[in-house]
Amino acid sequence: MTPMNNGSVHAEKDTLRRSIRQLKRAATDVCCRSWSARICNLLLSDRRLHDATTVISYAPLPDEVDVSAVTEWCRREGKTVLLPKVVSDTEMELRICHGPDKLRAGRYNILEPTGPVAEPDSLTDAVALVPGMAFDREGYRLGRGKGYYDRFLARTSVKTIGVAFPFQIVNAVPHDEHDVRVDDVVTTE
What we know:
The chain has 189 residues and is of the alpha/beta class.
């Protein structure tokens, strides 16, 4: 699929975000917990995660796949765990996560790590778990609209694994030249 023209891509992204938000509201907590547990089990059996020395994860919002079990497993295994911290209207940085008790609510009320900023050389052999609103089978990702992950991923060469509930997998995600694909997407199916 080739990039769409910029005139229509923004409107198509907004339409898809609205659609996914409706599906998220319709999904029960029981289903989301069950799906999250299944996705975590799949991730925990993924060789890329076992081989990584550094794992970039995220503190999930209530409507995202809860990867907390994977994040904690990585910490227990002695891997360096990094989480994003929003530092401006356009940028995020990665900080070392020393555990769930060391997270504080940041911008957008997202839990963020209080540890030191990760050094760029710590991203060698890193794997990133990437949340999103929607993903397609080509790896295109629809975020929440601020572009934090796209700008970050464009500057790195880390392996990326999108994580999504089954209803977040769509036929095609509208995209343009600034959108960065993930290497793979893990869902329940």
